Amino acid sequence: MGLLRLFLALSVVIHHLPQRSFAWLNAGVAVLVFFMISGFYMALIINERYSKMELWHWRFYLSRVYRIFPAYYAVLTFALIWFAIIKSPSVFSENYDLGFWRQLGLILPNLLILGQDMFQAILMTNAYDKHNMLSDSVFAFLGLDFFQNQFMIIGQAWSLAEELVFYALAPFFVLKRSRVLAILAISLGIRALLQVQSNSFPPIVWGYWFFPSTISFFCLGALGYFGYKKISCFSWGKTVGVMVWGLATILMIYSLLHGGILYEGTDYDSVKHWMFFISIAICIPFIFLASKDSYFDRLLGEFSYPLYLVHGFVIGILFSRFGLKPGSLAFEALVLLCSVGISALIYIGIDYPVDRHRRCIETARLFPLLRRAYLIVATILVIGFISSTRTQFLEPHPSLAQERPGLYGKAKSMPPILVEVVGKFNIVSFNNLYYAIPHGQGVDWNHDNVSELHGVLTGRSRDEIITRIPH
Questions:
Q1: Which range of residues forms the domain containing residue 320?
Q2: What's the whole-model pTM score?
Q3: How many domains does the chain have?
């Protein structure tokens, strides 16, 4: 399924291109399909490999840590070095007048990944101007100034937080289909409840950045494994898999030529979306059966994870630092080539050597491995404490134009938040208004009268501003 994984990663990259001239699969849908593939693979390796080992839970967890964190830390380190070169602030280097514990509360999710999904859920609930007991309580405790997009260095890493939670739970339920079905039913019930409570918990937010609702996609993938066990016993299984894979390839080409798949609307629980998700869940075991023996296919799949991590920085560097003009095929081709090239370097220099070591976990003595893992975690926590302590001795960052609150205080206004992308406009929430900003339009939110800028549309709600965008 390597080609499918690469297609999903490229869909996310293309979705994030400013003024993109073509599209593949909606990026949000692509991430949810990634979750389905992860559910399939985890059910596969737990049932067929790890569950047969001694102390297999710990070996599985260590294997996942080695899979996720090395590439993540490589990209995070690069980002912090780049920020230092261009003198761009980050929570690791600047005093945002948050106090020690709140600054540490932003540093640790960047280091440990966990918690980034809930950070985004709370942030986006406010961006959609919705109120519920959970998000309002968090805001009252931490303050609005705690939640700013730029505080999470690798913005898309929120999905890795959900992956890690799934990894922690998977050994306890993917061994039995009945348990997978039970958790799937509970998660779908949560998604249905979100639709009922949409005025307080917008489904586009809590159905995407909230693990109890997204675990349903991991479960769909895990159920695909039990289907794979059955079809792999038949000689026709691989033939059907090749046919399905061929149809999927045709669909990729068709989407490239016809404006992308599922780009209309943002409700991931529409009938059209669920027909697509169920179709993918049915196809996954066949695609795996057809491609599992292909080295080239596996190699392509290995590029998908580092590509997912680095593409945002590649776009930002080429667009903002080198002044390349977006909206042209040349710019888009350069972004894709640079992103894939850097991903290949990360795989060759980091993921491949680490993966060879990771396979030793299955046979190595466990306790020395655990001791090493504890030392690494302790080192990460120490780095977090030192970074948070260091920032307290710095002058508050000059970008803080308004008076900042003390610990557990509340900011006077929320920073501008990118809510979504509609056509060639960025929908931004700021100071209780919504703005449709044309791609490429620069905005100084502290000084510009944004509503008077050329091409900018203004409205009091997300729905109002979307209806005013020309189609």
A1: 2-90+153-364
A2: 0.85
A3: 2
